[in-house]
Amino acid sequence: MIHPVKLSPNQPADRFYRGGPRISEFRSGGAHGSHVPEDWVASVTTLHGEESLGLSRLPTGELLRDQVRRHPEAWLGRAHVEAWGADTKLLTKLLDAGQRLPVHVHPDADFASRHLGVAHGKTEAWVFLRGGTVHLGWRFDIDEVELRRWVDDQDVDAMLAAMYAIEVSEGDAVLVPAGTPHAIGEGCFIVEVQEPEDLSILLEWVGFDIDGPSEGHLGIGFDTALRAVDLRGTSGEDLTTALVRRRAAADGAVLPPAANQFFRADRVSRGAHLPPGFGIVVVTGGTGEMRWSEGAMALVRGDTVVLPADAGEVEFGGEVSAIVCRPPVA
To answer: What secondary structure letter does DSSP report for 131?
Structure first.
């Protein structure tokens, strides 16, 4: 039987945007530098173009990816494997924005398959541990010629003026469908759950540690890459109704319903039960424990744990609170 495993920080260095101190403080350790803004939790995904960077290791030193490939039913469950094989369908990160991230988009699965030869797009969602301002979606329809001019001229003021600026607080969640322009604001600290690919198309790069004209288009050129951008505008009410979910007092699902086809995220606390299945636990507060049929594990704020389906039903006790990220239902 495979048991739940507590994981060490997994923080790729030298990212092109700055991080802050919050991951190190939250995790009571790990890397702390100006360009270490992410912790890839229970990752079986590499950074774009890398062979192994981004992959999580178990305490034994073995890659989690390799364990899942060898024992897919034990990790993912029979129904999941029958539907998707050994694909976890999931990547979870901690992200601490030391500066506003650039305006960018992620391709959807169809675009990623046709132009990049990969299995997933990159729809993502953010659960906020510390709030701030995010930019999301177009306020009106955008002409593709105008968009290209903004990118070529790096007219960031025009881009941001065409987007919604949304204030978010701790516990709020935002869904970012593939193709939607977005930028996370400085000071935001989030649990990010997403499809398991590292695919970003930059619309903005001035002031960031990256050569945007050569690296911002995933190697396919901006003529092709910008076709991944959804140019449709929407009303503020429609956008917030579909993509923003304010924190609820009760445990349970934290993401807008449209996320369920891609991934799930639930807030849990004392007395919560999870059915068998693959999951990634981020302990957001308190102390307590997690129990399963053949064992238990003490939990404190900042812990991250990967749950195998083999563990069966899991129960949380004590004063712990956590976010649990899971694949879609098979």
So the answer is: -
Q: Which long-range contacts (CB under 8 A, 24 or more apart) does 154-162 make?
A: 154/204, 154/205, 154/206, 154/212, 156/103, 156/204, 156/206, 159/103, 159/203, 159/204, 160/103, 160/135, 162/138
The gap from C-alpha 73 to its chain's centroid, in whole angstroms, comes to: 24
The candidate with the shortest Cα–Cα distance to 105, out of 55, 152, 159, is 159
- CATH fold, domain 5-249, is Jelly Rolls (2.60.120)
Q: Which CATH architecture describes the domain 260-326? A: Sandwich (2.60)
Reported as a single tens digit per residue, the pLDDT across 154-181 is 999 999 999 999 999 999 999 999 999 9
5-249 and 260-326: identical CATH topology: yes
DSSP designation for 63 = B
| Domain positions in the chain | 5-249, 260-326
Model pTM? 0.96
pLDDT tens string 60-94: 999 999 999 999 999 999 999 999 999 999 999 99
Question: Quick one: the chain helix, strand, coil %, rounded to 5?
Answer: 25, 30, 45
Q: How far is CA 261 from CA 83, 120, 158, 236, 265, in A?
A: 13, 13, 33, 23, 12
Torsion of CA 319, 323, 327, 329, to 10 degrees: 60
Q: What number of other Cβ atoms are within 10 A of residue 14's Cβ? A: 10
